[in-house]
């Protein structure tokens, strides 16, 4: 009997199947570990498990979205599979977080939120340009509000800042391709007072979006001179910004979404 030789196509197929099994298995293990972490006892979290698994920026953004600045890897390479696995894990975490948000607020809709978030971000920029402290306090989380207010206080009284988004000053909804959902995260936050006494846990949510739009930004002096910072009236500057919004789910509908950071 002649021995059967395994041709190159069969070898390639087996290699592809092994890569798929390895990729899916790694993603499942990662999700299982994440679920186990969520159910871990509090003493384990207090021993540093939280900081080892989740990155937290100084701005308060939890597990920040990683903006990919590298070129796309070649298909079916290890880097390509790794990127696919990260995308799968990110999508699974986002789906889980969105379900938790909908449990806390039955009226929540991702499509409506995207337009609400854009209007919040537009109003924050307009308020910052005008020096409207109260609006910043209403629409921003405490830390970014303090930073923006401090910057306003350092301005010269003769300066007038102008921020405009196009078209129609950004009042119209952004098209879907210019208002992109990137990820959602839910987590528990425990506030410790000045005496060191820990308070109750609060359920928090953060959603990251990417806005692509056109704007002009300039400073007008009291004498009438203008300092153009971005764009011009006949040619607004195109910008893409990744922004994070946060909400306290423990308060239900009593607490709205607030701007927290720009990545």
UniProtKB/TrEMBL annotation:
PANTHER family: 39S RIBOSOMAL PROTEIN L45, MITOCHONDRIAL, LARGE RIBOSOMAL SUBUNIT PROTEIN ML45. It comes from the Eukaryota. It is found in: Mitochondrion. Residues 94-255 form the Tim44-like domain. The keyword Mitochondrion applies. Pfam families: Tim44. It comes from Porphyridium purpureum (Red alga). Its main location: mitochondrion. Keywords: Mitochondrion, Ribonucleoprotein, Ribosomal protein, Transit peptide. InterPro entries: mtLSU_mL45, NTF2-like_dom_sf, Tim44-like_dom. The keyword Protease does not apply. One of its GO terms (cellular component) is ribosome. Belongs to the mitochondrion-specific ribosomal protein mL45 family. This is Large ribosomal subunit protein mL45.
């Amino acid at each position: 009997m002649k021995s059967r030789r395994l041709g190159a196509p069969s070898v390639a197929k087996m290699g592809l199947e092994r890569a798929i099994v390895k990729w899916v298995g790694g993603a499942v293990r990662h999700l299982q570990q994440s679920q186990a972490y969520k159910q871990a006892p509090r003493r384990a979290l207090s021993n540093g498990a939280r900081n080892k698994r989740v990155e937290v920026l100084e701005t308060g953004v939890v597990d920040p979205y990683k903006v990919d600045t590298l070129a796309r890897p070649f298909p079916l390479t290890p880097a390509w599979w790794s990127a696919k696995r990260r995308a799968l894990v990110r999508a699974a975490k986002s789906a889980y977080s969105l379900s938790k948000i909908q449990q806390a607020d039955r009226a929540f809709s991702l499509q409506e939120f995207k337009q609400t978030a854009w209007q919040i971000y537009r109003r924050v920029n307009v308020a910052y340009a005008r020096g409207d402290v109260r609006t910043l306090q209403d629409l921003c989380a405490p830390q970014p509000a303090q930073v923006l207010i401090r910057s306003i206080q350092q301005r010269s009284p003769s300066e007038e800042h102008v921020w405009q988004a196009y078209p129609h000053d950004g009042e119209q909804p952004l098209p879907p391709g210019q208002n992109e959902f990137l990820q959602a995260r839910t987590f528990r936050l425990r506030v410790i007072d000045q005496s060191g006494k820990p308070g109750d846990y609060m359920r928090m949510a953060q959603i990251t979006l990417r806005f692509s739009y056109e704007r002009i930004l300039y400073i007008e002096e009291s004498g009438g001179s203008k300092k153009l910072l971005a764009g011009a009236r006949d040619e607004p500057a195109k910008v893409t910004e990744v922004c994070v919004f946060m909400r306290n789910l423990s308060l239900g509908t009593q607490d709205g979404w607030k701007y927290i950071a720009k990545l």
